[in-house]
Amino acid sequence: MKLEVSSEALQNMHRHAEADYPNECCGFFLGLEGDVRQVRVIREVENAKEGDQRRRFQIDPKDYQQAEKYAIEHDLDLLGVYHSHPDHPAEPSEHDRSVAMPWFSYIIISLQDGKASNTRSWRLNDERQFEEEPFETKEFSSQPKNLDI
Ligand SMILES: [Zn+2]
Q1: What are the pLDDT digits (tens) for 11-28?
Q2: Structural domain boundaries, residue 106
Q3: Number of domains in the chain
Q4: Domain with 139 in it: what CATH number?
């Protein structure tokens, strides 16, 4: 599936990843599910991994519940999870694959020396292998057009 990511959501993901460098950051993204997945907003969550967070992230179950609640309240779909790879390529690790859920998209932000350098999205196929999802950034107008005049 293809993703369209609002440029604001992408900027917010990058900002979060850079702020948490050299640790991995993580969070959810939400939007609308259709022929294309439209990523509209992100929800930062705390990396719940105990100990060294430079190569691992973990999301607390209560954060999943809160993200689901937020999605319902705002009439959005919970589309996936983003996390960062400090000084590492934007490719899922074996650990990422083992804990990934079907249906979710996984956006990975690679950082080089603390700056977001490459962002890619992945999704499990029926064999539980990751396949890359193409994505592009897009401006979504959050208000009806006639209010802009
Ligand atoms: Zn990872």
Answers
A1: 999 999 999 999 999 999
A2: 2-147
A3: 1
A4: 3.40.140.10
Please tell me the pTM assigned to this model.
0.93
Rounded to the nearest angstrom, the distance between the alpha carbon of 30 and the centre of ligand 1 is 19
In terms of Cβ atoms closer than 10 Å to its own Cβ (0-12, 13-18, 19+), residue 88 is: middle
Centroid of ligand 1 to alpha carbon of 74 (angstroms): 28
Please state, in angstroms and as integers, the Cα–Cα distance from residue 84 to each residue in 10, 145, 148, following that order.
12, 35, 36
Centre of ligand 1 to C-alpha 59, Å, is 12
Cβ atoms of 76 and 9 within 8 Å: the answer is no
Centroid of ligand 1 to alpha carbon of 114 (angstroms): 16
- Tell me, in angstroms, the distance from the centre of ligand 1 to residue 8's CA: 22
Residue type, 42: I
Helices (H), 43-143: 61-73, 94-99
Distance of CA 129 from the midpoint of ligand 1 (Å): 14
Distance CA 49, CA 91 (A): 20
For the stretch 99-135, pLDDT in tens is 999 999 999 999 999 999 999 999 999 999 999 999 9
